[in-house]
Amino acid sequence: MNIPRFHLAFPVIDLESTRKFYTEVLGCTLGRESNKWIDFNLFGHQIVAHFSPDECIRTNTNKVDGDMVPSRHFGVILSWDRWKALCKKIKKQKLTFMIKPKIRFKNLKGEQGTFFIQDPSDNVLEFKSFKNDFMVFEK
Predict the structure, then answer these.
(1) Which of 42, 58, 78, 122 would give a disulfide with 82, using CB separation of 3.0 to 4.6 Å?
(2) Are 40 and 48 within 8 A, CB to CB?
(3) Is 114 helix (H, G, I), strand (E, B) or coil?
(4) What is the mean pLDDT of the chain?
């Protein structure tokens, strides 16, 4: 599927721990950077970590299919195989899942694989996959 790239800027406490997390844990490549921000390629999308410690705050949660899901989070919808491979990579690195990999809405519209992790600044990322791509926006 050929879709426009997404851009997201977010605050971080420390640029070096952020660089390590996004490149080593998630496999992002680096783009431009300064002493105040770093561009990352997150599965073809541009995300930008801005040094802004005062903006790094905890977020509220909402109950979704039995889990307390952070209301502020971002991530990527991956193909089923790439999602499973990323789950395996994160488990191998012994990173703690905020919400462990699971199948949400099993046997219902919107059935999806999902998991949540946090970066070093407590930004929450969700990675998900739909077995059928048409289900992404199905009501």
Answers:
(1) 78
(2) yes
(3) strand
(4) 92
Token pair of 46 as six digits: 């541009």
Largest separation between any pair of C-alpha atoms in the chain: 48
**CA separation (Å) from 4 to 19, 51, 65?**
25, 26, 30
Matching CATH number, 7-137, of 3.40.309.10, 3.10.180.10, 3.10.129.10, 3.40.50.300? 3.10.180.10
pLDDT at 1: 54
pLDDT digits (tens, 9 = 90+) for 27-50: 999 999 999 999 999 999 999 999
DSSP 139: -
Q: Which of 112, 93, 94 is nearest to 102 (CA)?
A: 112
Dihedral, CA of residue 134, residue 97, residue 33 and residue 24, to nearest 10? -100
Structure tokens at 75: 């991530």
Tell me the three state secondary structure of residue 42.
strand
Backbone angles phi, psi at 38, to 5 degrees: -140, 130
Separation of alpha carbons 56 and 69, rounded Å:
18
Which pTM does this prediction carry? 0.90
